[in-house]
Amino acid sequence: MSFNIETSTDASRVLFINSGDAQQLELGLTTDYIFIPDESIVVPPHHTILLSLHHIQIPFSFYNFQLNRNTKLDYGLSTSGAPLTFTDTGTITLEEGNYNASTLMTAITTKLNDETNVGTLSMRFNRDTLKYEWNYDNDTGSANNARLTLRISTGSNASVNFRDEMGFNSNKFVVGDNSLDVWFEDNGANLLCGQSTAIATTTLFTGATGDYWDGDNTAETTNYFSVVDMNASIRSLFVRTNLTQTSVMDSAIGGGFSTILARIPIDVDSGGIITISPSDGAVHKLILKVREITMITVRLTDQENRTIDLNGLDWDISLSFDFIETSPLRIPKDKRLEVEDKQYKKFKELKEKTKKKK
To answer: Are residues 208 and 192 in contact, defined by beta-carbon separation less than 8 angstroms?
Structure first.
């Protein structure tokens, strides 16, 4: 149990913060702010702060599909056998929101098929394999538009498209150092599908069931489709502060020190409230090296350190500061006497000043 030298009780100092009371660092975002308490938190001599996440409430109002993050997709139309020589190009943009496998499938095909000369791209979701299956038919523009390429790697929006959510996982859909686009072709008989590298080479697949390509390359052993992950963008939330820069290590930055205070699992449906209460918040405990806390910066991010947008809603967090007394036995004898002598002198000076005022 910690001992608070200021109150002589086994107590913690708890700081409650509502994002609406803090100063926003990014315009319109309640999830990136700075808070300056009226009184600084000072660590007494021979003490260390044990910081823990006491309580948190976050409204699940953020989207898995967010603008400038994963809502755009570039495409190109070309003749058969010419994957990088496009006769027509374009971009579709999904509405921000949360999708399931069915609604995402509908949104993609509706947007693409509304584009000029694209033809008809059909999708279906295989519940056994958890993968999308595809069919492409284009009778609207002769052979010039026979091939539809989803430019998941070479398009100008390659970094903000929804390739993972479609199943084209960037960790798997590569050959060597080249990230690959994927194309579908209507050759008048069977659906042909493939992937294209930057040097215009192709690996050809053929439809396996009723002209639908199920993602399996029967000619080779590699399956280039990954499991569809509707939460590929945001799996967990992370609270980050300026207090934890020497306490937490993060594999995402090569194992270096991170600003993460706690990982918040998403265990409610959209529209609910993500909560960590005092009963389980104590599992997030960190020893701090700071001696005085004059301000606190707080960010709420996803696993890739991108700030979450709660769409204007505020959220609450409370931090618990426990003062742990450092054992004098850990201090060399001579040094301990020196420290105690300084403390006594300060106490004596303060006492003398108090007498003079009276």
So the answer is: no
Selection from 67, 119, 117 nearest residue 93 by Cα? 67
Q: Judging by DSSP bridges, how do beta strands 296-301 and 32-35 pair with one another?
A: antiparallel
Residue 62 contacts by C-beta under 8 Å, 6 or more apart in sequence? Answer: 234, 308, 309, 310, 311
List, for residues 28-38, the tens digit of each pLDDT value: 899 999 999 88
Per residue in 41-85, pLDDT (tens digit) is 888 777 788 888 889 999 999 888 888 888 999 999 888 766 668
The tokens describing 296, both together, are 């606190």
Asked whether residue 132 is assigned to any structural domain, the reply reads: yes
Q: Counting beta carbons within 10 angstroms of the beta carbon of residue 240, is it exposed (0 to 12), middle (13 to 18) or buried (19 or more)?
A: buried
Domain count, the chain: 2
Alpha-carbon gap, residue 122 to 102, rounded angstroms? 12
List helix spans (H) across the chain: 101-113, 163-166, 278-281, 333-357
Domain boundary among 187, 206, 225: 206
Q: Within a domain: residue 218?
A: no
- Same structural domain, 167 and 252: no
